[in-house]
Amino acid sequence: MNTIKRILLTNKGKKFYVRDLSQDMHTQHGFVKKTLLKKKKGLVKTNTGETMSIFEPRFIDAYNKIKRGAQIIPLKDIGIIVAETGINSRSKVVDAGAGSGALACFLANIVKSVVTYELRDDFAKIVKKNIDFLGLKNIKVKKKSIYDGISEKNIDLITLDLPEPWLAIEPAAQSLKAGGFLVSYSPTTPQVSDFVSAVKKNKSFVYLKTIEIIEREWEFSDRKIRPKSQPIGHSGFLSFARKV
Questions:
Q1: What is the pLDDT of residues 42-92, one digit of tens each?
Q2: Is 101 exposed, middle or buried (0-12, 13-18, 19+ CB in 10 A)?
Q3: CA-CA distance, 233 to 2, in Å (whole number)?
Q4: CA angle (169, 171, 176) in 5-degree steps
Q5: Would you list the domain boundaries of the chain?
Q6: CA-CA distance, 45 to 60, in Å (whole number)?
Q7: Domain 6-57 of CATH type 3.10.330.20
Q8: How far apart are CA 24 and CA 33, in angstroms?
Q9: What percent of the chain has pLDDT over 70?
Q10: Which helix (H) or strand (E) holds 52?
Q11: pTM value?
């Protein structure tokens, strides 16, 4: 269960997580008295005079503190999956290759239900811990290879983060509703090539596109504007297909 009770935010964007409201919160900017931590919004001051905003945590605050085992799909890629597929509170999702459960958990905060497939026990345990930490009730972890079939039907979106995603194309075709989306996330071009080639040959799908998202943050200091030197570069390729 989520143990984060409050968020403290400096005017420079530095964030502190308050887990215990019965004790003073110590930071490098000084400490905030426990009596001030009871506030659900507004401003508080540390003993050194530093002013911080205080508010109750949102989903994204807790999400940023989930446990990691396998490498997770970054937010820049999750965002484009949501935007391109148009999933909403009525959508049903199947996710394969849960890893740490980052994608499945993020989608579960948006959609009606998520079933995530994961074969490895160590990863499945991490996923379940993250589900509990985030307080999600609409997500189920299934220990099964999606290559062997998908029991869920009339699914709106299937996401794949697998070594051989092309092996999941036919099971996905049997599970997705007409107009549903199949999205494969792969770090290497050979994986993408094999997946795209296979999905183009499958008459149940129309291949849409493959994209890569590069995120570059910019620095602003008065009128001095420049990109930060280390952009978030290649993480993976996203291939989109639609069930027909």
A1: 999 999 999 999 999 999 999 999 998 877 899 999 999 999 999 999 999
A2: buried
A3: 31
A4: 90
A5: 6-57, 62-243
A6: 24
A7: yes
A8: 5
A9: 98
A10: strand 51-55
A11: 0.89
